[in-house]
């Protein structure tokens, strides 16, 4: 089962980040080369590619635009400048910069990530060949691996389960008061109070989005047809050179992305 709060969050970012898995909770750190077992819809950690003997080189990070989402206007934000008293604020002092966020519709989210940078595995051909070697030795088709990661300098995520959710935030001192906007809700912000929110988080140095790959199921079927069914000790002999050659020449015929639909979050996380 998937958490209702997570479904709302995934719907909020899904149009922009199609095909990407989402760190959940947002504070979860995901690293390039992280490995999971995906068995019967249950995904659990299984170490890293490096620990499994699969070396890889990380491609230098590429900057991406900041990400802002306010559920098509259903999240209302009122900003408070320093020296001004805001009606309804309970934790903000007159000297604080701050914001009041309220939601007018159910299943709404306000998501802000600043300083996005994307990195990934540099050599897909070498990775494909290494995973073929690993799979021949261990013959485990449940392994999936993180091949791309988007990190952020900071972020804020508020998810409302009802149309009455709200939050009060203190913003970082020193922000340009003349031009406060959604992007200022991330980066040094702190949540002072929240009401009827399914998720509330703000913080620095996160990894909100990542992509996962695996060896194609069709590849496994073809190997079984050509080299016989799986059996104990299958990896005792060397991997057939033809399989390694295919991986190096056409990595896309060996590797495939894993749909984010495989990502599951227990319903028990809902409030």
Q: Which short descriptors sum up this protein?
A:
single chain, 271 residues, alpha+beta, 10-stranded antiparallel β-sheet, 4-stranded antiparallel β-sheet, 17% helix, elongated
**Main pleated sheet:** 10 strands, antiparallel
* Shape estimate: elongated
Name the structural class.
alpha+beta
The number of strands is: 14
Low-confidence stretches: none
- Helical residue percent? 10-25%
Measure the end-to-end span: 15 Å
**SSE topology string:** HEEEEEEEEEHEEEEHHE
Q: Please, what is the average pLDDT? A: 88
Strand content: 35-45%
* Overall radius of gyration: 23 Å
The tally of helices reads 4
Describe the 3D structure.
It is a single chain. The chain has 271 residues and is an alpha+beta fold. 17% of the residues lie in helices and 37% in strands. It has 4 helices and 14 strands. It has helices at 4-13, 124-138, 217-227, 241-249; strands spanning 21-22, 34-39, 42-48, 58-63, 67-69, 75-80, 98-103, 108-114, 117-121, 143-160, 166-170, 190-195, 197-215, 255-257. Strands 1, 2, 3, 4, 5, 8, 9, 10, 13 and 14 form a 10-stranded antiparallel beta sheet that branches. A 4-stranded antiparallel beta sheet has the order 6-7-11-12, with no helix packed on it. Helix 2 runs antiparallel to helix 4 (241-249). The longest helix is centred in the middle third of the chain and has 15 residues, at 124-138. It is elongated, with a radius of gyration of 23 Å.
Short précis:
The chain is built from 4 helices and 14 strands. By secondary structure, it is α+β, with helices and mostly antiparallel strands. The radius of gyration is 23 Å and the shape is elongated.
């Amino acid at each position: 089962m998937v958490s209702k709060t997570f479904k709302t969050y995934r719907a909020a970012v899904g149009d922009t980040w199609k095909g990407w898995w989402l760190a959940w909770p947002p504070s979860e750190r995901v690293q390039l080369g992280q490995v999971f077992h995906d068995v019967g819809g249950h995904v659990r950690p299984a170490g890293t590619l490096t620990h499994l003997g699969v070396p890889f080189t990380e491609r230098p990070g590429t900057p991406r635009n900041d990400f802002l989402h306010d559920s098509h206007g259903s999240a209302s934000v009122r900003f408070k400048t320093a020296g001004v008293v805001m009606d309804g604020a309970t934790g903000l002092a007159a000297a604080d910069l701050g914001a009041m966020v309220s939601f007018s519709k159910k299943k709404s989210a306000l998501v802000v990530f600043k300083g996005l940078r994307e990195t990934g595995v540099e050599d897909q051909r070498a990775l494909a060949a290494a995973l073929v070697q690993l799979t021949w030795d261990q013959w485990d088709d449940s392994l999936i691996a993180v091949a791309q990661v988007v990190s952020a300098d900071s972020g804020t995520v508020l998810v409302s389960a009802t149309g009455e959710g709200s939050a009060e935030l203190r913003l970082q001192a020193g922000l340009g008061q003349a031009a406060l906007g959604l992007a200022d809700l991330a980066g040094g912000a702190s949540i002072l109070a929240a009401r009827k929110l399914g998720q509330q988080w703000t913080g620095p140095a996160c990894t909100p989005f990542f992509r996962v790959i695996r060896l194609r199921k069709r590849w496994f079927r073809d190997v079984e047809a050509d080299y016989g069914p799986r059996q104990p000790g299958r990896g005792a002999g060397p991997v057939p050179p033809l399989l390694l050659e295919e991986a190096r020449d056409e990595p896309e015929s060996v590797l495939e992305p894993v749909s984010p639909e495989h990502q599951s979050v227990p319903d028990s996380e809902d409030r």
